[in-house]
What we know:
The chain is α+β, with helices and mostly antiparallel strands. It has one domain (about 1-90). Helices cover about 25% and strands about 55% of the residues. It has helices at about 65-75, 75-90, and strands at about 1-10, 10-15, 15-30, 35-50, 55-60, 65. Strands 1, 2, 3, 4, 5 and 6 form a six-stranded antiparallel β-sheet that branches. The longest helix is centred in the C-terminal third of the chain and has 15 residues, at about 75-90. It is elongated and about 55 Å long. The model has no long low-confidence stretch (mean pLDDT about 85).
Amino acid sequence: MEKKELKLESALRIGETTLVPVVEIRSTWSAGRYGICFSFRKQPTALLMVSPIGKKAFSMSGEEMSFSEFLSQFPGIEQALHALESGWAQSA
């Protein structure tokens, strides 16, 4: 059985610019005759850049993608990003 999850990692703030790594966490398990086998993998998939100029997203190959394209490729991240941004506003 396999499970995939996208997650925002800890943000790095440099001046007014914030970098947010996006990672994919994949876990698998299988049961066999001699026991159960588990495996886990954490892999970077994208990098978000949030600044006063706007939001940008980059694939791990370094290609820039529009933010709307990023959100369509990584559904569910938008809610996590809003929560992160509201936390930034409270700490500012």
